[in-house]
Amino acid sequence: MSRVRVLAVSMLGVVALGAAGCAPTGGGGATGNVAPVAAISAVPSSGPSPLSVAFSSSGSSDPDGSIVGWSWTFGDGSLTDTTPNPSHTYTLVGTFTASLQVTDNGGLTNVATQSITVTSGVNPVTVTAPVNNSSSNNAAPTFAGAAGNAAGDAATLAVVVKQGASTVQTLSATRSGAAWSVPASPALADGTYTVTATQVLAVSITSTSPVVTFTVDATAPAGVAVTAPLTASTSNNPTPTFTG
Question: With helix as H, strand as E and coil as C, how does the chain read?
Answer without folding.
Answer: CHHHHHHHHHHHHHHHHHHHHHCCCCCCCCCCCCCCECCCEEECCEEECCEEEEEECCCCECCCCCEEEEEEECCCCCCCECCCCCEEEECCCEEEEEEEEEEECCCCEEEEEEEEEEECCCCCCEEEECCCCEEECCCCCEEEEECCCCCCCCCEEEEEEEECCEEEEEEEEECECCEEEEECCCCCCCEEEEEEEEEECCCCCEEECCCEEEEECCCCCCCCCCCECCCCCCCCCCCCCCEC
